[in-house]
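RETRY 2/3 - previous attempt timed out on the joint model. Re-submitting the same 443-residue input unchanged.
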Amino acid sequence: MQRVGQNERVPVTITLNGRQVTALATSRTLLSDFLRQAVGATGTHVGCEHGVCGCCTVMIDGVAGRSCLALAVQVDGCRIDTVEGLAGEGGALNALQRAFQANHALQCGFCTPGILMSFTDLLARNPSPTEQEVREVLGGHICRCTGYAGIVAAVLQAAAEMRGEAA
Amino acid sequence: MKPRPFDYVRADSVAEVLELLARHGEGARILAGGQSLMAMMNLRLVQPEVLIDISRIAELGEIRIVGDMLEVGATVTQARLEAWPKLEEVAPFIARAIPWVGHFQTRNRGTVCGSIAHADPSSELPLSLALLEGEVVLRSCRGERCLKAPEFQTGMLTTAREADEMITAVRFPIGVGRKGAAFREVARRHGDFAIVGIGAVVAGDGNIRLGVGGVSDRPRTITLPRADESDLQDRIERFAWELGGYDDIHASARYRRDILRRLAPRVIQEALQCNG
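RETRY 2/3 succeeded.
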């Protein structure tokens, strides 16, 4: 049994984008705040803080989930992947990111980090999603610039490229 | 939009959870997937003194067949049940309904038992429990009991769970809906809380069981004898009127009844058509 009292501050260790990091958290620190404020990884955005908008979506042990609905102490020892981990050496964008750029799939970009993480999960599980499947996953996000058509096109294009098909 | 301070305890076994629940009672809450509870805590609608994290208790993470029931443990996520290869064969109705539960991202962490414990009147899994006549396994230091859906579901966001009890599993009868199953709902956006959700299964005797969420304070069911179509519509109209419905920011009671009147015949038709 592990107990964290309400006035305690405890070290929490996560593997963030492949690198082990440790920072302090209280029992009520949300994973989203832990990433942004304790670790300093501000790529993950925070919108509604009750699981509706999808901005804060990260991958927790390999599956996409809301970081505002998880506690830092709850994911101690877990692997967390965020938007900062997508680009390769020297900041080279990955296939999904390139497709977002090519299809104008972001305007203000606030919602984009969460959307990228959801589709990183989807494409890992299902390399050939239908447009309907892409739309259903996108249903878990809100883009107030309403650039949904570009996002759907980008994901389908990235999926094709990752399957080795010509775009 | 942050939770109020609380003591966090990660339990390693069910015995530890039961001991904590016995000690803290109403002040304690169980955290599994957190997809309803954490949202309510962030909004401060729920303010537990002690939060008991059960997500790493291995014995609660099983999907198994026990006798003629499908048993789903307390930490099994909705995504895991959705991806379970035997789901279509064992529980075809749940296979139809589960893609409608929340979003892809919330199903990844949200648990089947958690949704049933939360008892939102418009949720798909509480409706599945009621429609399929499933049961809920509750454990406390005092022992274990098993409640049938109508005994467990007592109202809006309320169940018959006592403060010192935890849900260790839910069970669904195997094979209900093999003769036909369908589910539809009306929501502002796929994955949002349903305004009204409707499910239908064709029972072994050919009768139709209809389940409705989002019209009453809890999922409601009715058995409709297979009769001619006009009689069916009359029965649905009467059922809708009996349920009454409730007004909220999303829809009026009348609109909810209207959805039921219009959608139920289509769901029944769909269930009958997939009758192989």
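Chain B has a mean pLDDT of 95. Closing ticket.
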